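To close the section, here is one more complete example, presented without commentary so you can practise reading it yourself. The ligand is WTA.
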Amino acid sequence: MATDQDQEVSEAQIAVHWREEEYYYPPAKFIGQANANDPAIFERFREEDFPECFKEYADLLTWDQYWKTTLDTSNPPFWKWFVGGRLNASVNCVDRHLATSRNKAALIWVPEPESEETQAITYQELYKRINEFAALLRGFGDVGIGDRVTFHLPMVPELPVSMLACARLGVIHNEVFGGFSGAACGGRIADSGSRILITMDGYYRNGELIDHKAKADEAVAAAKEQGFEVDKVLVWRRHPGQYSSKTPMVAGRDFFVDELMHEYAGRLVDPVSMPAEAPLFLMYTSGTTGRPKGCVHSTGGYLAYVTGTAKYYQDIHPEDTYWCAADIGWITGHSYIVYGPLSLGTSSVMYEGVPLYPDAGRMWRIAERLGVSIFHTAPTTIRLLRKFGPDEPKKYDYHFKHMTTVGEPIEPEVWRWYHEVVGKREAVIVDTWWQTENGGFLGSTLPALQPMKPGSCGPGVLGIYPVIYDEERKLVEVGSGRAGNICIRNPWPGIFQTIWGQDERFVETYYAKYCRDKESKDWRDWPYLAGDGAVQAADGYIRILGRIDDVINVAGHRLGTKELESAALTVDEIAEAAAVPVVDELRGRAVEMYIALKPGLKPSKELEEKVIKAIEKEIGKIARPKNVWIVTDMPKTRSGKIMRRVIAAISNFTDIGDVTTLANPEIVDSIRHQVQTEKAARGEVPRELTPQEVEEMKRFGQAE
Ligand code: WTA
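Output:
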C-alpha cells in the first residue's frame, strides 16, 4: 500500500511540459459595450478589500431590508453572507422588472417540434403564472417556509415557474434532472424529505413524446422503499387538457395542475421576505459514497453571486437575447438560465429538445430566428455540432457577441472551431470553471479585460483567490508546471451552505484536507477543496485536469463510480464491479464497467445487458456504460482495494505503470489482452491521449 502511495505522489509532482496556447483578444466592438471594461474593477476586488468587495454584487439586488454584516465567520466553515438582510428571489427575478419592462420577454421557449410555435413569456405573464402556481402550492399543496418540494421536470417553462413560485413562498425547491431515472429521483425525494413531487406527463426529445409520468410512479415507490411517503404528485401537462402518458393517475395522490389551476387563476401571493441566509434550493450531485449530496444554496449570497457574475463575465445587458443551452436540471441552468439572467432583466431562451433535432442546423436556426446575442453551452455539445455539421453555422445569419463554455475541459482544437466557426470570430469566449457546490463561476476571464487562452479557463474570477496544494499540503508554485489540487482560499457569496442533513460530510469532503486549524474563526485557515486537479501557468491562468476523486464527468454530467458500481451490484450474478472513465471523442468521457461474477457463473451477453439495464434503472440513460467487461478477477492491492487506475489505463490504452506491488499482478496482462483485443476488433482504439488526459487517468481513484 505504502509503495503505491509514494509512487502516486511522486507522479503528481513531476513537472509536466504543457504546451502553452497563444492568447486571443476581444474585438473592439465588444470592449466598447462591455459591462466591465474599466480595469479599476480589479482594484475594487483586491484581496485587501475582501469581503466588502462583494457589496458590489449584493447591490445589484433589491433588498427588503439591507444587511448589517457582509460575512459572518463565527462558525467555520458554515459561512453566512449579508447577514441581517431580507429579500425575495422571485421579486428580484420578476416583480422588480415590471415597472420598466412589463411586456418584454422574460423567457422565450422553443419547443422541440418545429411545427409548434415558440412562446415568448413576458415578465408580466411570468409574474402571473408564478403567483397562480404559488397560490396553488400554498393552498392545495399546503407548503410553506422551509418545506422541500422535489421537481422532476424537463425543459419547459413550467420548470422556472415552479422554481420561482417556491422562491416566492420561501419553499426550498429541489429539481432533479429530467433524464435521471425514477429510482434516482425517489432517492432524492427521500433524502430531502419532500412530501410533494412536481412532474410533467411527457416532453419531446429527439422527435418522440417521452412518457415521463411513468418515472413519477417509480420515484414514489423508490422513496417509499426508503421509508418516505409522498403525499401528492402534481402533474403539469405538456398539452394542457390532454394526457400524454400511458400510466394511470393514482386517485387521491396524482393531480393535473391545469385542472387544479381553475381555482387559483388570477390569484396573487405576497412574496415572503426571506433572510439572506435562508436556503433557496437544493441541487443534488454525485459524491464519493453512494448517498448523493444535496447542496444547499442560500437566497441572498447565491442570488448576488449569480447576478454579479452573469453581469460581468457573461456581459448580460437587459437588451440582450441570451441563450444558455444547458438543462435547468443542472446547476448551470439554475444559475445561468433562470436566476442570473432574470435577475438582470434580460430575455432568456429555453430550448426543449436535443441539439441535433431534426438536423445539425437546428441550433443556428434558433439563434438566427430569435436574434440571440449571447450563447452558452458545453464542450460536449460543441463537439457534437462540429462532428455532425461543421459548416452549418455559416448558413445562418446570426451574430453572437459573447459565448460561454462550461462543464468540462475544452480541447484547444474544439475551442478554435467554436471561436472561428460558431462565433464567426466576432464573439468573445469565456471558459467558465465551477461546480454544483459553488453557485457560480470560480475561474474565467473578464471578457473585455483579459485575453482568452484556449484550454485554460483563466485566473480566479473577481473576489476568488485560488491556490494549488500538493498531497503534502505544500504550495505548488504558480508557473512551476506542476499539477496539484486546486483550492479556493476564501469564502464567496455563492458557496453552498452545507450538504442537506450531512454537516459532517460537508466539512470532511471540502475543508478537512487543507484546514490549518479546526478551532480557527479566520477564513484564511479554511481553504475550500474543489476536487479537481489543476496546473496554473505563470500568467495565473488555470488549466483544469479533471476530478481527483472518483467522479466521472460524462458529457459534463458528474457520475459517481460508487453509484455506478452499486447499481451494477443490484444484479444477482455480480460479485464485484468497478467503473472507470474512457476518453470519448464526443462526450469527453464515457463509462466502462468491469465486472467479476460470482463463482461458477459464465460470462454472457445477457449478463452484460443486465448490468446496463440496472444502471439505467438506478441512475438513468445518461449513465449507460459504453462497454461492460466481464473479467475473471479485478487487479487488487494486497489490502484488497480494486486498482481502478490500472483498469482505466487498460481501457484507455495508456501506460499501466508498475503493478508488481499488486496482490495479483498476473491478472493485469490477461485483462489487458481480453479488453484491448476486443476493442481493436470493434475499432475502438482511442487516439493518443493528451498530457492532461494521461495525468487524469493516473490520478483516477487515488483519493479513496
Ligand atoms: C468540471 C458544472 C474544465 C470539473 C458547472 C468540475 C470543468 C466539475 C469546467 C463540476 C471547465 C466544470 N473546465 N472542467 N470550464 N467546468 N468542470 O458540478 O471537473 O456538474 O469539478 O458543475 O466539472 O461539475 P458540476
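Once you have examined the C-alpha cells, check your reading against these statements. The longest helix spans residues 123-139. The longest strand covers residues 574-584.
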